[in-house]
Here is the input.
Amino acid sequence: MTPHRLYIGAIGQGVFRSLDQGVSFRRAADGMFVECDVRALIPDPESPHTLYLGSEDGVFVSRDGADNWQRVDSPLNGLQIWSILLLPSNPNRLLVGTCPSRLFRYDDGGRSWSEPTAGMVKECPRIIHTRVTCLAADPSDAQTVWAGVEIDGLWRSQDGGQTWQKLGSGLSSQDLHGLVVVPASRGRARRLVASTNNDLNLSDDDGQTWRPLGIGRWLPHSYCRGLRQIAGRPERLLLGNGDGPPGTTGLIAASPDAGESWQIARMPGPANSTIWNFATHVEDPQLIYASSVSGQVFRSTDGGASWAKLTREFGEIRALAWTP
Here is the structure.
Protein backbone atom coordinates (compact mmCIF):
# COMPACT_ATOMS: atom_id res chain seq x y z
CA MET A 1 0.00 0.00 0.00
CA THR A 2 1.26 3.47 -0.83
CA PRO A 3 2.58 5.30 2.26
CA HIS A 4 0.12 8.08 2.96
CA ARG A 5 -1.54 10.46 5.39
CA LEU A 6 -5.24 10.12 6.15
CA TYR A 7 -7.27 13.10 7.35
CA ILE A 8 -10.70 13.10 9.01
CA GLY A 9 -12.79 16.27 9.36
CA ALA A 10 -15.43 15.98 12.07
CA ILE A 11 -18.24 18.01 13.57
CA GLY A 12 -17.28 19.30 17.00
CA GLN A 13 -13.93 17.48 16.88
CA GLY A 14 -11.79 19.34 14.34
CA VAL A 15 -9.27 17.33 12.32
CA PHE A 16 -7.70 13.95 12.99
CA ARG A 17 -4.67 12.60 11.13
CA SER A 18 -3.29 9.09 10.76
CA LEU A 19 0.27 8.36 9.64
CA ASP A 20 -0.06 4.56 9.82
CA GLN A 21 -2.82 3.72 7.32
CA GLY A 22 -5.64 4.33 9.77
CA VAL A 23 -4.38 2.16 12.61
CA SER A 24 -4.08 5.14 14.96
CA PHE A 25 -5.16 8.77 14.86
CA ARG A 26 -4.29 11.96 16.67
CA ARG A 27 -5.96 15.32 16.59
CA ALA A 28 -4.19 17.73 14.23
CA ALA A 29 -5.86 21.08 14.83
CA ASP A 30 -3.09 23.38 16.09
CA GLY A 31 -3.92 26.92 15.07
CA MET A 32 -7.69 26.56 15.07
CA PHE A 33 -10.48 25.91 17.56
CA VAL A 34 -9.85 22.29 18.48
CA GLU A 35 -13.57 21.43 18.57
CA CYS A 36 -14.54 23.21 15.35
CA ASP A 37 -16.94 21.83 12.74
CA VAL A 38 -14.99 20.74 9.65
CA ARG A 39 -17.10 20.32 6.52
CA ALA A 40 -14.50 20.92 3.79
CA LEU A 41 -10.96 19.54 3.57
CA ILE A 42 -9.11 19.80 0.24
CA PRO A 43 -5.47 18.87 -0.51
CA ASP A 44 -3.52 20.89 -3.04
CA PRO A 45 -2.83 18.48 -5.93
CA GLU A 46 0.52 20.15 -6.63
CA SER A 47 1.70 20.18 -3.00
CA PRO A 48 0.56 17.15 -0.96
CA HIS A 49 1.38 18.73 2.41
CA THR A 50 -0.80 21.76 1.66
CA LEU A 51 -4.45 21.47 2.68
CA TYR A 52 -7.35 23.90 2.77
CA LEU A 53 -10.03 23.51 5.43
CA GLY A 54 -13.43 25.08 5.99
CA SER A 55 -15.05 25.42 9.40
CA GLU A 56 -17.60 27.70 11.04
CA ASP A 57 -14.78 30.20 11.53
CA GLY A 58 -13.74 30.58 7.88
CA VAL A 59 -10.99 29.11 5.68
CA PHE A 60 -7.74 27.69 7.07
CA VAL A 61 -4.57 26.47 5.37
CA SER A 62 -1.81 24.10 6.44
CA ARG A 63 1.45 23.82 4.54
CA ASP A 64 3.00 21.09 6.66
CA GLY A 65 0.52 18.22 6.48
CA ALA A 66 -1.75 19.48 9.30
CA ASP A 67 1.01 20.02 11.88
CA ASN A 68 -0.07 23.65 11.96
CA TRP A 69 -3.02 25.63 10.60
CA GLN A 70 -3.45 29.33 9.86
CA ARG A 71 -6.67 31.14 9.11
CA VAL A 72 -6.72 32.75 5.69
CA ASP A 73 -7.77 36.28 6.60
CA SER A 74 -10.71 37.00 4.32
CA PRO A 75 -14.35 38.08 4.07
CA LEU A 76 -15.17 34.51 5.10
CA ASN A 77 -13.89 34.98 8.65
CA GLY A 78 -16.67 33.73 10.91
CA LEU A 79 -18.72 32.20 8.09
CA GLN A 80 -19.70 28.53 7.98
CA ILE A 81 -17.80 26.88 5.11
CA TRP A 82 -19.37 23.89 3.33
CA SER A 83 -17.30 23.48 0.15
CA ILE A 84 -13.93 24.45 -1.32
CA LEU A 85 -12.69 23.95 -4.88
CA LEU A 86 -9.17 24.46 -6.24
CA LEU A 87 -9.62 25.12 -9.94
CA PRO A 88 -7.70 22.52 -11.98
CA SER A 89 -6.63 25.17 -14.47
CA ASN A 90 -5.28 27.46 -11.75
CA PRO A 91 -4.53 25.94 -8.32
CA ASN A 92 -3.98 29.45 -6.92
CA ARG A 93 -7.65 30.22 -7.53
CA LEU A 94 -10.17 28.91 -5.02
CA LEU A 95 -13.95 28.92 -4.94
CA VAL A 96 -15.61 28.66 -1.55
CA GLY A 97 -19.26 27.94 -0.74
CA THR A 98 -20.94 28.79 2.56
CA CYS A 99 -24.11 28.40 4.62
CA PRO A 100 -26.27 30.48 4.18
CA SER A 101 -25.50 30.09 0.49
CA ARG A 102 -22.86 32.50 -0.77
CA LEU A 103 -19.96 32.03 -3.16
CA PHE A 104 -16.51 33.56 -2.82
CA ARG A 105 -13.66 33.56 -5.32
CA TYR A 106 -10.05 34.30 -4.58
CA ASP A 107 -6.78 34.36 -6.47
CA ASP A 108 -3.09 34.25 -5.59
CA GLY A 109 -3.58 32.06 -2.53
CA GLY A 110 -6.07 34.40 -0.89
CA ARG A 111 -4.59 37.82 -1.59
CA SER A 112 -7.43 38.93 -3.87
CA TRP A 113 -11.05 38.27 -2.87
CA SER A 114 -14.40 38.82 -4.54
CA GLU A 115 -17.98 37.74 -3.91
CA PRO A 116 -19.92 37.24 -7.16
CA THR A 117 -23.57 38.16 -7.20
CA ALA A 118 -25.28 34.81 -7.66
CA GLY A 119 -28.80 35.38 -6.39
CA MET A 120 -28.97 32.10 -4.50
CA VAL A 121 -31.85 31.57 -2.11
CA LYS A 122 -30.52 31.75 1.46
CA GLU A 123 -33.54 30.83 3.55
CA CYS A 124 -35.24 27.44 3.53
CA PRO A 125 -37.96 26.47 6.03
CA ARG A 126 -36.88 22.84 6.06
CA ILE A 127 -33.20 23.43 6.95
CA ILE A 128 -33.36 27.12 7.98
CA HIS A 129 -30.50 28.14 5.66
CA THR A 130 -29.48 26.77 2.27
CA ARG A 131 -25.86 25.72 1.75
CA VAL A 132 -23.42 25.26 -1.12
CA THR A 133 -22.75 21.55 -0.72
CA CYS A 134 -20.58 20.89 -3.79
CA LEU A 135 -18.39 22.63 -6.37
CA ALA A 136 -17.08 21.01 -9.55
CA ALA A 137 -14.94 21.91 -12.57
CA ASP A 138 -13.85 20.17 -15.75
CA PRO A 139 -10.03 20.00 -16.02
CA SER A 140 -10.33 20.54 -19.79
CA ASP A 141 -12.39 23.74 -19.46
CA ALA A 142 -10.65 26.52 -17.57
CA GLN A 143 -13.70 28.76 -17.28
CA THR A 144 -16.73 26.58 -16.57
CA VAL A 145 -17.57 25.56 -13.00
CA TRP A 146 -20.74 24.39 -11.28
CA ALA A 147 -22.18 24.74 -7.78
CA GLY A 148 -24.78 22.52 -6.15
CA VAL A 149 -26.97 24.03 -3.46
CA GLU A 150 -29.04 22.35 -0.78
CA ILE A 151 -31.81 23.37 -1.34
CA ASP A 152 -31.59 25.68 -4.39
CA GLY A 153 -30.49 23.40 -7.24
CA LEU A 154 -27.66 23.87 -9.73
CA TRP A 155 -25.68 26.98 -10.68
CA ARG A 156 -23.09 27.44 -13.44
CA SER A 157 -20.35 29.95 -14.15
CA GLN A 158 -18.67 30.22 -17.54
CA ASP A 159 -16.12 32.85 -16.55
CA GLY A 160 -14.19 31.12 -13.79
CA GLY A 161 -16.66 31.92 -11.03
CA GLN A 162 -17.10 35.64 -11.62
CA THR A 163 -20.79 35.43 -12.59
CA TRP A 164 -23.37 32.67 -12.04
CA GLN A 165 -26.65 31.55 -13.58
CA LYS A 166 -29.17 29.04 -12.27
CA LEU A 167 -30.06 26.09 -14.49
CA GLY A 168 -31.04 22.44 -14.12
CA SER A 169 -34.37 21.70 -15.78
CA GLY A 170 -35.49 18.15 -15.08
CA LEU A 171 -33.58 17.51 -11.85
CA SER A 172 -35.40 15.05 -9.61
CA SER A 173 -34.88 17.46 -6.69
CA GLN A 174 -33.40 20.86 -5.93
CA ASP A 175 -31.65 19.23 -2.96
CA LEU A 176 -28.16 18.71 -4.43
CA HIS A 177 -25.57 16.75 -2.47
CA GLY A 178 -22.76 15.73 -4.84
CA LEU A 179 -21.59 16.69 -8.32
CA VAL A 180 -18.94 15.32 -10.69
CA VAL A 181 -17.91 16.14 -14.26
CA VAL A 182 -17.06 13.30 -16.66
CA PRO A 183 -15.04 14.61 -19.64
CA ALA A 184 -16.26 13.87 -23.17
CA SER A 185 -14.97 10.65 -24.73
CA ARG A 186 -15.77 8.19 -27.53
CA GLY A 187 -18.66 10.13 -28.96
CA ARG A 188 -20.21 10.99 -25.60
CA ALA A 189 -20.53 14.63 -24.61
CA ARG A 190 -19.20 15.97 -21.35
CA ARG A 191 -21.48 14.60 -18.63
CA LEU A 192 -22.51 15.93 -15.24
CA VAL A 193 -23.71 13.53 -12.56
CA ALA A 194 -25.53 14.85 -9.48
CA SER A 195 -26.68 13.08 -6.33
CA THR A 196 -29.82 14.31 -4.58
CA ASN A 197 -32.08 13.29 -1.72
CA ASN A 198 -34.27 11.16 -4.00
CA ASP A 199 -32.22 9.94 -7.00
CA LEU A 200 -29.11 10.21 -9.14
CA ASN A 201 -29.32 12.60 -12.11
CA LEU A 202 -27.42 12.79 -15.44
CA SER A 203 -26.91 15.72 -17.81
CA ASP A 204 -25.20 15.67 -21.21
CA ASP A 205 -25.62 19.37 -21.99
CA ASP A 206 -23.49 20.99 -19.28
CA GLY A 207 -26.26 20.91 -16.71
CA GLN A 208 -28.91 22.67 -18.75
CA THR A 209 -31.30 19.69 -18.70
CA TRP A 210 -31.29 16.52 -16.61
CA ARG A 211 -32.77 13.03 -16.51
CA PRO A 212 -33.27 11.19 -13.24
CA LEU A 213 -31.66 7.77 -13.45
CA GLY A 214 -34.06 5.82 -11.26
CA ILE A 215 -31.35 4.60 -8.86
CA GLY A 216 -33.86 2.21 -7.28
CA ARG A 217 -33.27 -0.16 -10.19
CA TRP A 218 -29.84 -0.94 -8.74
CA LEU A 219 -29.79 0.20 -5.10
CA PRO A 220 -32.14 -0.31 -2.15
CA HIS A 221 -32.38 3.37 -1.18
CA SER A 222 -33.20 6.51 -3.14
CA TYR A 223 -31.16 8.83 -0.90
CA CYS A 224 -27.82 9.55 -2.62
CA ARG A 225 -24.97 11.50 -1.06
CA GLY A 226 -21.22 11.06 -1.57
CA LEU A 227 -20.11 11.04 -5.22
CA ARG A 228 -16.55 10.59 -6.48
CA GLN A 229 -14.54 9.63 -9.55
CA ILE A 230 -11.70 7.13 -9.52
CA ALA A 231 -8.43 9.02 -9.97
CA GLY A 232 -7.32 8.75 -13.59
CA ARG A 233 -10.56 7.00 -14.62
CA PRO A 234 -13.19 9.77 -14.59
CA GLU A 235 -15.88 7.52 -16.12
CA ARG A 236 -15.70 5.23 -13.07
CA LEU A 237 -17.84 6.61 -10.24
CA LEU A 238 -18.44 5.80 -6.59
CA LEU A 239 -21.72 6.66 -4.88
CA GLY A 240 -22.68 6.81 -1.22
CA ASN A 241 -26.20 5.52 -0.64
CA GLY A 242 -28.35 5.17 2.46
CA ASP A 243 -31.78 5.44 4.01
CA GLY A 244 -31.63 9.14 4.84
CA PRO A 245 -29.72 11.91 6.58
CA PRO A 246 -27.96 10.68 8.65
CA GLY A 247 -29.83 7.41 8.20
CA THR A 248 -29.34 4.10 9.96
CA THR A 249 -27.73 2.09 7.17
CA GLY A 250 -25.54 2.79 4.16
CA LEU A 251 -23.65 1.23 1.29
CA ILE A 252 -21.18 2.02 -1.49
CA ALA A 253 -22.00 1.51 -5.17
CA ALA A 254 -19.74 1.69 -8.24
CA SER A 255 -20.44 2.62 -11.85
CA PRO A 256 -18.12 1.75 -14.77
CA ASP A 257 -19.97 3.86 -17.33
CA ALA A 258 -20.35 7.47 -16.12
CA GLY A 259 -23.39 6.69 -14.00
CA GLU A 260 -25.55 4.72 -16.44
CA SER A 261 -25.45 1.52 -14.35
CA TRP A 262 -24.46 0.61 -10.79
CA GLN A 263 -23.29 -2.34 -8.75
CA ILE A 264 -23.18 -2.60 -4.95
CA ALA A 265 -19.60 -2.94 -3.69
CA ARG A 266 -18.50 -5.67 -1.30
CA MET A 267 -18.46 -4.37 2.28
CA PRO A 268 -17.97 -6.15 5.63
CA GLY A 269 -21.56 -5.27 6.45
CA PRO A 270 -23.88 -2.28 6.12
CA ALA A 271 -22.52 1.04 7.28
CA ASN A 272 -24.15 2.59 10.35
CA SER A 273 -25.51 5.49 8.27
CA THR A 274 -25.38 6.98 4.78
CA ILE A 275 -21.94 7.07 3.12
CA TRP A 276 -21.12 10.77 2.99
CA ASN A 277 -17.54 11.13 1.73
CA PHE A 278 -14.85 9.56 -0.44
CA ALA A 279 -11.13 10.31 -0.60
CA THR A 280 -9.04 9.50 -3.68
CA HIS A 281 -5.63 10.55 -4.97
CA VAL A 282 -3.91 10.26 -8.35
CA GLU A 283 -0.79 8.88 -6.63
CA ASP A 284 -2.61 5.55 -6.09
CA PRO A 285 -5.99 5.19 -7.86
CA GLN A 286 -6.59 1.83 -6.16
CA LEU A 287 -6.45 3.29 -2.65
CA ILE A 288 -9.75 4.89 -1.65
CA TYR A 289 -11.30 5.82 1.68
CA ALA A 290 -14.98 6.30 2.44
CA SER A 291 -16.82 7.45 5.54
CA SER A 292 -20.33 7.28 6.87
CA VAL A 293 -21.74 10.46 8.33
CA SER A 294 -22.04 8.76 11.73
CA GLY A 295 -18.36 8.07 12.09
CA GLN A 296 -17.28 4.86 10.38
CA VAL A 297 -14.31 4.78 7.98
CA PHE A 298 -13.76 2.21 5.22
CA ARG A 299 -10.77 1.52 2.97
CA SER A 300 -10.50 -0.07 -0.47
CA THR A 301 -7.23 -1.15 -2.07
CA ASP A 302 -8.81 -2.42 -5.30
CA GLY A 303 -10.33 0.74 -6.73
CA GLY A 304 -13.61 0.53 -4.83
CA ALA A 305 -14.64 -3.06 -5.63
CA SER A 306 -14.32 -4.22 -2.01
CA TRP A 307 -13.97 -2.49 1.33
CA ALA A 308 -12.66 -3.11 4.84
CA LYS A 309 -13.69 -1.14 7.93
CA LEU A 310 -11.14 0.65 10.10
CA THR A 311 -11.30 -0.08 13.81
CA ARG A 312 -11.42 3.56 14.94
CA GLU A 313 -14.81 5.28 14.80
CA PHE A 314 -15.55 8.98 15.19
CA GLY A 315 -18.56 11.15 15.97
CA GLU A 316 -19.91 12.87 12.85
CA ILE A 317 -17.59 12.89 9.82
CA ARG A 318 -18.14 15.54 7.15
CA ALA A 319 -14.77 15.67 5.35
CA LEU A 320 -12.18 13.13 4.28
CA ALA A 321 -8.84 13.25 2.41
CA TRP A 322 -5.63 11.31 1.91
CA THR A 323 -2.29 12.44 0.51
CA PRO A 324 1.07 10.78 -0.18
User: Anything to note?
Assistant: The chain has a mean pLDDT of 95. DSSP finds no helices and 30 strands in the chain. The CA atoms of residues 118 and 219 lie 35 Å apart.
